[in-house]
Every structure is written in structure tokens, then in C-alpha cells.
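[Archive record]
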Amino acid sequence: MKIGLYFGTFNPIHVGHMIIANHMAEHSDLQQIWMVVTPHNPHKQKSTLLEDYQRLHLVNLATEDYTKIKATDIEFKLPQPNYTVNTLAHLKDKYPQHEFSLIMGEDNLKSFHKWKNYEFILGNHDIYMYPRISTETETLDLKNHPRIHKIDAPIVEISSTFIRESIKNKKNIRPLLPNNVWEYVDHNNFYRK
């Protein structure tokens, strides 16, 4: 099975994440999308994250009605901070019958050359890139690489940071979250402090 790995802290997961995941599931040759909940991104401060299993629960809530999209806690069991190349090696060992690809925004591709062992990743895994609006000028000319597939997905400019700040400032952001995710976040008073 061809599986697309969509990594994120999902703090919280929002409709933008779901639009991209569903678009990849329905409009590419990927057969399943695994939302990989990252316990600690080496480039983000851990203090801003909800507890790992709370974020996993939010992703499970968001994906429960999608047969081709599922949440995974595969990185929770790996040493932290973790790197994508280690996760891919672990998944290949655990699920040798599957072919794993990465899903990433065009903005992340621009800094892909800074990733640990990026040449190895690119040599062994396809990358499905969705468009993003970006002002970054630093670039690595990978767009024409045979393993990189540009998917004409909708451009979604919603950020989890904006959602957290809006909740903290008592703004109504309900349309930006899947309904059951909003209800759980609201019920538990997440991001209000």
C-alpha cells in the first residue's frame, strides 16, 4: 500500500490540515494518509504544545469519519527529539509491505536541504508537495526532482498558532476546527491561558 505521511504537531489540528489530507487521499495515487502526531519537533519549543496524547486524541476525532485518513502515534515511541529519517527507517522495519511517502508544504521543501540526511530521504521516498504562500527566498531547486510530485491542492492559510492566539483572546474560531475537535477543545478549556 502507498501511504502518505503527513507530519505535524497538530496543536490543534484544524480544517486546513484536513483539507490537505483529504485532497491527497482523493487526488493523488496515495492510498492512505497517516497523520503523524509529532511529540516534539526539534524546531519548536515544547512548552507551547498540548500534551502528546491530547493532540493525538484531537487528530483521532478529526479523522474518525475518513476511511483513508488515520492518526498515528508512531513517533511517541521513538527517542526525542526525533528526525524524519529515523521515523521512516522505523516504519520501513515495522511495515515492510508498505511504501511510505512524505507530504509537505512548498514552504518546507525550501528548507528541506537542512533536514537530517535529506539526500537519503529523497533517494528512497517520494515527496508529495502542496502549494503554500511563502516569503522565504532561500530555496533548493528540487521542484523538478523525479521523486517530488506537486499536487494542485487548495492553498490553505490557516495556522495553529493563529487559532491558539485567537482562543486565548476570546475570539470565535469555531469554523476553523472540525466540529468534534472544537467541542473537545472548548470543553477542556485548551489554549485559554
The beta strands are 2-8, 32-37, 69-72, 99-105, 127-130, 148-150. The longest strand covers residues 2-8. The longest helix spans residues 15-27.
